[in-house]
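thought: fold this chain, then report.
action: predict
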Amino acid sequence: MKSEFEFNSPVKIVSGAGECRNIGKWVKSFGAKKVLIISGRSVSKSEYFKSMTEKMKDENTEFDIFTDTVPEPPMEIVDELADMVREKDYDLVIAVGGGSPMDTAKAVCMLKNNEGKIKDYLFGGDKTPKNPSVSLICIPTTAGSGSEVSCASVIEDTTANIKLSCTHPNLYPKLAILDPLIQLDMPKSVTAGTGMDAMTHAIESYTSKNASIMSAMYSRRAIELIAEHLPIVINDPNNIDSRMHMAIASTMAAVAFANGGLGAVHGISQATGGIAHTPHGITNAILLPKVMKYNCMGNTEKFADIAKILGADTDNMTTKEAAEEAAVLIAKMNAEIGIPDKLSSLGVTEDMFDEIVEGTLGYRLLWMNPIEVKDELVYKILEESL
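observation:
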């Protein structure tokens, strides 16, 4: 594990039950005059969202609301919204939602002050943000994506049927508000999928070749918190303490992967999502134990440690046996919280494999994976996941 590293975490984080109701205070701290709230339709109908915006009205905060974000945001919606933000000259954006609204908002805030379309800035494009983004406040309604503290925006390139990211320090939000009360309306399936998305972030960043002493500290603690609190919120959705710990764990895992990196799970998942339009968190969850089965040989000590964190009695196991047990325990956790075991349940078919493999091998963080990833391995994982 690297003891020489760069570590960046510039986002101010505020946490607490009911903190969203203080949004007016935070808007004033930015001196904002024209505010845009970007959210999704279901979130915008929640009572807590309505109470937050009513409070803003009472405080005479001028704002508009955009609720037409969609999962796995396509570049066309991002470009259309960016044109509106440029035209109306908003000076603060508030993203309220899961990863898709927050990723949409980060891209839009960047484009407001930089020319061109989002495709110009996605991986493989020819532009880099030159000007600072519009200030952004992120309020996650799920405990999974960690987009509230990352400098990446994952967007679907609909011309190539693949999800790509725009990654640049200018995309960091200025403030993240972690409020468990706005996460209480999450359906159980969303809680499970986003929770395992956070677990994937934590495990991949912990075992990444790019992990450092600093990033591993965040990763390991996130694994501990998710293992303890995700089963609780699945069975007791209104448990505010565990919701709070899941929100914190998700954010910690995101800080870890923003600095330590990701690996094959995300490479395969993003390629699969772009082709089959599968939900990101569930796709990660299905792939995670399958990938871990092979990755554990790249760093048996860390995977053995993960098994111990997940509750395995490793005292009478060899390091190799304990490392292999980690994948078994993640698969069991998936089953216990209602995650399907097969990608076919999400509409993935064998005739998609060639495109998925091609997209996976183009994933820019694949070098960080604990073992080398070649096309034969990706085909094998896909076959075992189908």
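thought: worth noting. The beta strands are 12-15, 35-39, 63-66, 92-97, 135-140, 152-157, 162-167, 175-178.
final: tokens above.
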